[in-house]
Amino acid sequence: MTAVLDLVKNVVYSGVGVNLVVSDAIIGREVPAPKAITEHAATAYTKGTEALTDLRGRTDLLAAMVVERLPQQVAGAVETGRKAAWGFLGIDTPKTAALKAAKTA
């Protein structure tokens, strides 16, 4: 039962953290959490950033493969928009995704 509770706790922290990362990006600054939940907010923010970085790592290679098949003008727009969205959130390309992309190139 403890493993299930830990899993649920991690999922909740990740979900709240993704919302914090996106909200901070939209607002343009980190919104301070109330003092009573500062520690929980910091954990959630870290878990959310990890979740988004993991998502980008899993989708970057697939997105590159899709972009290769598009006409050049469309591919350029898709690639520019995709990079802008991740840049807006402040999520860098994970090293593992960069290594995989280099190996396939």
How would the blueprint of this fold be written?
Blueprint: H1 2-27, H2 38-68, H3 72-89, H4 95-104
**In total, how many beta strands?**
0
| Quaternary class | single chain
Report the order of strands and helices: HHHH
Shape: flat
The overall average pLDDT, rounded, is 88
Rg from alpha-carbon coordinates: 17 Å
Spans with pLDDT under 50 lasting ≥5 residues? none
The percent range for helix content is: over 70%
Distance between the termini: 45 Å
Strand proportion, as a percent range, falls in under 5%
Largest sheet: none
Question: Helical segment tally?
Answer: 4
Coarse structural class: mainly alpha
What does the model show?
α1 packs across α2. The termini are far apart. The chain is built from 4 helices and no strands. The mean pLDDT is about 90. With about 100 residues, the chain is mainly alpha-helical.
